[in-house]
């Protein structure tokens, strides 16, 4: 009975106490040596009823703290419309009396969360300098919950709030301010959107109501300065990018090599090894050791490296005495050289090219396909020149060069089409782009010759002769063909490319007979299509298979086919004359060899992994011998 009475009495007293306005002291910040350290509110979690005044005492020293309202989910961001004391700087050693900030609770039905928004020396919020008022003892929304959230953040918002907050308000900025104490970012008296940025540095006086306009103007001015500065930086950045982009575009043909070299030389160790290796090699370029792996142009046997660069300016592809193909190394551009030798330049080069998107799948495909085209496709006519020109009797013309390259271009595309998306599409498209840029370049070199010759898109070849280069090395007036001729030739080659690709595809999926006939029609000049002219045929006539979509035929609709077949167009592709008819005997074998070669190479490419196609060593991708069993067939 007595016990019950006491309990009731106690409850009554408790209710009475709760109804009264409380005053709660909270210490802001600590000292190095006290438990909890500098970054704390003490107590950090308490309950307070409506009308209670929380007196925050800035006793922690050295200290530069704030009491800023936030939300549970966004623990270190000033709450929009929340209260804020601004930063109060307490020097080391402390001051007397300590500045106080009185916060009155206006709504105790919701939890009030607050934190210190200081970032120096590290964000105080993430260090655990947070507090709650009227939070549940445990679970969601409790002090520990909020603390956990806070400790997972990396940053604190620096927005300046107001004296009036949500559920609690102050009526004055912290005070008194003994000497040594400084206020920063003093809040306005009425709620502002805490999403605003910038840490105000207005004086304590600006907290009075009348100065809110001044605050606004200052705030606007700051925003304007910030905006102007951002625009200025953006402008400088943009112009730098444009300049760099242009510089890179100029070096477009160097870029694939530069990037792949930079990639290979990523590790500093490797790069040093490479450079050490390069030096002696360059000085003894006449040793035949380095072949395809470290290709050197045969014309580059000059000992001094400066003359080497000059001779290399006209890269010509040739088969060396060792029977191996020497792919000309393009003279290194200034940029390539820098990227290769300086790790810093390489670092920034890779950074900037990445920024410009050169490492996106699309751009990478563009860069890689240039190497694939130049090193794998375009070298094939020269690699088996003797086979094509002596065995197949292809004349040394650009047309011959084109059909041989196109055969290999097609084989490579068969493999590239099988790359996973989006790579397959990019690779085929870009390989074609490089092929046709090269074709255009070569057509131009033939139709619009220049002396000295222009730097070629890929390299010079001796597979075909340019009939328009005068022997005396002097160009006559009017020897340049008009632009429309170049365009027309481009169209012709485009049609040949499409037609050949279609027939090869058809042959690939049907049978060897179809493939052989595609090869006979497209590669071997369709010799004998008009029947074989024997020595006793009367009268022995000159005949050739006329390719209606290529060569010299300019207007297929208007041509008299019969007459055209009997005319020597100088292309060198014609039926064997009666005294050479025994060459027809070897024709089926020749076709079989090419069909076998084609199927073998396609099967070989199929076995190469996608990664190797896209990143691997180019040497491994190169086409093999057409007749591997015949020694010295090339
Ligand atoms: C903290 O404690 C150490 C050793 O106990 C003392 O040397 C140092 O002065 C103290 N620092 C402060 C700020 O009291
Ligand atoms: C409690 O606070 C309210 C609001 O601030 C005020 O009106 C009231 O007078 C205070 N009561 C006491 C007992 O201090
Ligand atoms: C105190 O904090 C404010 C706001 O972050 C900052 O501007 C000021 O420089 C700090 N003062 C010191 C002495 O660290
Ligand atoms: C405190 O004030 C708020 C808002 O005026 C009100 O919703 C709430 O019920 C009050 N709390 C108590 C215990 O009266
Ligand atoms: C505040 O009140 C809630 C609910 O009334 C209680 O769970 C919690 O433990 C209290 N917090 C403190 C610090 O007393
Ligand atoms: C805060 O409240 C205390 C006690 O009510 C008072 O002594 C002090 O002057 C107040 N400080 C400010 C800055 O309002």
Q: Which spans have pLDDT < 50 for at least 5 consecutive residues?
A: 1-18, 193-211, 265-314
Structural class: alpha+beta
Largest sheet: 5 strands, mixed
Envelope shape = elongated
Q: First CA to last CA: what distance?
A: 118 Å
Mean pLDDT, nearest integer? 75
Over the alpha carbons, how many angstroms does the gyration radius reach?
A: 41 Å
Helix content: 40-55%
Q: Biggest sheet, strands in spatial order?
A: 2-1-4-8-11
Organism: Lentinula detonsa
Pfam families: Ubiq_cyt_C_chap (PF03981)
Family: Belongs to the CBP3 family.
Biased composition (Low complexity): 292-314
Task: Describe this entry's structure for a reader.
With about 625 residues, the protein is α+β, with helices and mostly antiparallel strands. β13 (about 315-320) and β14 (about 325) form a beta hairpin. It has helices spanning about 1-20, 145-150, 210-250, 255-265, 270-285, 305-310, 335-340, 345-355, 360-375, 380-385, 385-390, 400-415, 425-445, 485-510, 510-520, 560-565, 585-605, 610-615; strands at about 25-30, 40, 45, 55, 65, 70, 85-90, 100-105, 110-115, 130-135, 170, 180-185, 315-320, 325, 460. One 2-acetamido-2-deoxy-beta-D-glucopyranose binds near residues 100 and 172. Belongs to the CBP3 family. InterPro entries: Cupredoxin, Ubiq_cyt_c_chap, Ubiqinol_cyt_c_chaperone_CPB3. Keywords: Membrane, Signal, Transmembrane, Transmembrane helix.
């Amino acid at each position: 009975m007595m016990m019950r009475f006491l309990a009731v009495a106690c409850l009554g007293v408790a209710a009475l106490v709760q109804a009264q306005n409380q005053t709660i002291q909270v210490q802001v910040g600590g000292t190095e040596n006290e438990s909890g350290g500098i970054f704390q509110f003490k107590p950090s979690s308490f309950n307070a009823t409506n009308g209670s005044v929380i007196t925050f005492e800035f006793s922690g020293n050295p200290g530069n703290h704030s009491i800023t309202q936030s939300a549970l989910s966004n623990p270190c961001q000033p709450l929009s419309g929340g209260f804020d004391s601004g930063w109060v700087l307490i020097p080391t050693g402390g001051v007397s009396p300590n500045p106080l900030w009185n916060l009155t609770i206006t709504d105790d039905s919701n939890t009030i969360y607050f934190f210190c928004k200081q970032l120096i020396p590290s964000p105080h919020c993430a260090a655990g300098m947070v507090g709650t008022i009227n939070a549940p003892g445990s679970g969601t929304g409790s002090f520990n919950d909020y603390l956990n959230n806070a400790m997972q953040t990396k940053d604190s918002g620096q927005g300046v709030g107001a004296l009036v907050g949500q559920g609690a308000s102050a009526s004055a900025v912290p005070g008194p301010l003994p000497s040594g104490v400084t206020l920063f970012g003093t809040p306005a008296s009425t709620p502002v959107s805490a999403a605003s940025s910038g840490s105000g540095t207005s004086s304590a006086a600006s907290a009075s109501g009348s100065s809110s306009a001044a605050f606004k103007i200052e705030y606007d001015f700051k925003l304007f300065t910030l905006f102007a500065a951002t625009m200025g930086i953006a402008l400088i950045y943009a112009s730098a990018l444009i300049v760099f982009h242009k510089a890179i575009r100029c070096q477009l043909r160097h870029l694939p090599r530069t990037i792949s070299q930079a990639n290979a030389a990523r590790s500093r160790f490797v790069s040093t090894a490479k450079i050490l290796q390069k030096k002696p090699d360059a000085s003894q370029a006449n040793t035949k050791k380095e072949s395809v792996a470290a290709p050197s142009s045969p014309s580059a046997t000059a000992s001094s490296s400066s003359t080497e660069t000059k001779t290399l300016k006209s890269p010509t592809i040739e088969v060396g005495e060792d029977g191996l193909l020497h792919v000309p190394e393009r003279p290194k551009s200034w940029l390539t050289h820098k990227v290769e030798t300086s790790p810093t330049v390489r670092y920034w080069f890779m950074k900037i090219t990445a920024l410009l998107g050169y490492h996106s799948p699309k751009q990478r495909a563009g860069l890689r396909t240039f190497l694939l085209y130049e090193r794998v496709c375009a070298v094939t006519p020269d690699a088996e020149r003797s086979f094509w020109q002596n065995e197949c009797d292809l004349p040394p013309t650009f047309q011959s060069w084109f059909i041989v390259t196109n055969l290999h271009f097609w084989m490579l595309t068969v493999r590239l089409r099988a790359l996973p998306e989006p790579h397959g599409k990019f690779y085929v498209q870009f390989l074609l782009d490089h092929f046709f840029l090269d074709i255009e370049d070569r057509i131009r070199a033939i139709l619009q010759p220049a002396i000295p010759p222009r730097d070629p898109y890929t390299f010079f070849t001796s597979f075909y002769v340019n009939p328009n280069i005068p022997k005396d090395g002097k160009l006559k007036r009017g020897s340049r063909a008009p632009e429309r001729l170049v365009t027309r030739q481009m169209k012709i080659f485009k049609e040949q490319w499409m037609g050949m690709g279609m027939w090869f595809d058809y042959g690939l999926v049907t049978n060897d007979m179809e493939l052989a006939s595609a090869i006979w029609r497209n590669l071997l000049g369709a010799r004998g299509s008009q029947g074989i002219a024997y020595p006793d045929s009367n009268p022995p006539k000159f005949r050739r298979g006329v390719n209606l979509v290529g060569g010299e035929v300019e207007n297929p609709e208007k041509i008299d086919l019969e007459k055209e077949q009997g005319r020597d167009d100088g292309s060198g592709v014609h039926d064997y004359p009666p005294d050479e008819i025994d060459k027809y005997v070897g024709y089926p074998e020749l076709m079989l060899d090419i069909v076998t070669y084609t199927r073998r190479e396609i099967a070989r490419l199929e076995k190469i992994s996608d990664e190797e196609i896209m990143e691997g060593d180019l040497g491994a991708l190169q086409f093999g011998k057409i007749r591997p069993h015949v020694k010295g067939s090339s």
